[in-house]
Fold this sequence. Notes:
496 residues; single chain
Amino acid sequence: MLRSGQPAGHATVILQTEHQGRDLRDETRADGRFRIEGVAPGPHTIGAKDGQRLSGQQPIVVGERDVDDVVLKIDLDASIAGTVVDLDGKPVAGVTVHFFCDTKRDSGTAVTGADGTFLVTSLAGGGDYRPWLSAEREGPSGYRPPAGQDWAPVSVPDGTSHITGVRFAIAVGELAIAGRVVRAGAPVPDVEIGADAGSYTLRVGPMDHLIRVVRDIQAGARDVTIELPAVGAIEGTLDGFHGWPRVLATYQRAGEQEYHPPLQARVADGTFAFADVPIGSYVVTASDTSGGSATAEVTVAADAVARVTLAPEPRARVDGVVLSWPGRQPISGMTCMWRIYGVAGRGGGAESKSDAEGRFSIEMPAAQPVHVSCMGPPWESSTIKDAEVELAAGTSGSAEVLVYNLKPGHRPFWFPGLQLDPSGRVGADLSGLRAGDRILAVDGISIANVGARAAMPMLLGDHDPGTTATLTVERDGVEQTIELPIPDRLAAPPGK
């Protein structure tokens, strides 16, 4: 590894492999040398970073022998500079400006100074960077353009490009929102009220115990009245759990104006309690680090305490294997876990890593349908077909999970406007497809026996923008071939 022609120590070298659930990494020694072991024969992509600059990713093919004398140069330092102003053209300080390049898996961040200027450095370049502006460095709330559209991407041709003159105009105001909080007509003091920047949504209660969310409030409103529901409490006992159990209560029938996110209980000495719980029906779940879990339904009445005792449910064991799709090769390093669908408050648990042969073993609830899925790094792999297992208490069974790994540098691609049902049936006319067509295969890879909604974004995501995907569809009982063009701009997942 070289930096400005000299050996670069303490840099991270990253080897990405198409059919492996995780990247392989090594840190360079003082003399710049590195060694990555356990590399499977085949094509890979190698690159590096040192926190300041990047090296360009380059392909490398590993055969039956070690590959020596690879030289990487940390010489990429592209940048984007510009200004953030308000709608009157005045500079805005303290705005965090983020840039993301989906195709390069690269990003950078800077905060505007007193004059509204920013400079984002250490970018790899070679793609379009999506801007995201927020009021806080770690805050989820973002500023949007005045027209309400997404910010236009900024093109950074290569690792030596320095883009200047980027200008963002944001709406920054000093209007207030005022009102009162009541319950049964009586004022309620000491209730925390928060607002999401730019969306005019009021949060009632702290983030870890939200009572209600009130939407569509206009800035400047002075007469907002927030009516809180009557409340009660939930108290209970934990019998047989280990370590530090986690207890959640999930509201079962939340309407549009009744926002009740899961509540987390205070747990101490085998007991738990939820205070100020809005009235209604809840599913209370408990889980611990050993995989123990329990569920109970309770009804909370006004000014009353609902009591419950939770003990770990009977368990069974799944011995499974993770295979690549469609190649059906074992994949190591996958994180596998169980989930229960269709039951409020039930998530998943008991994570297990697959070994070199793709095998894993997890404890799961017995005597009910449980889905087992596996995944690698976010946005790099996805379960294409999970396993549904139902086992009697104290028994064990097998499971097979199929996973698709994207090519290095690629991301899932949700084709804009493409509507699919689970069988692959198309919901509306689009790009040569007709409503009622059923997609059978993509580039010759059959999706007949896997989840079409899971498979399509992964298979399309492996295509570069500007190329086409060959779809085999069934139309009126006859198979046809359709070329689907992949647009230049990546689409966001539905609902995101």
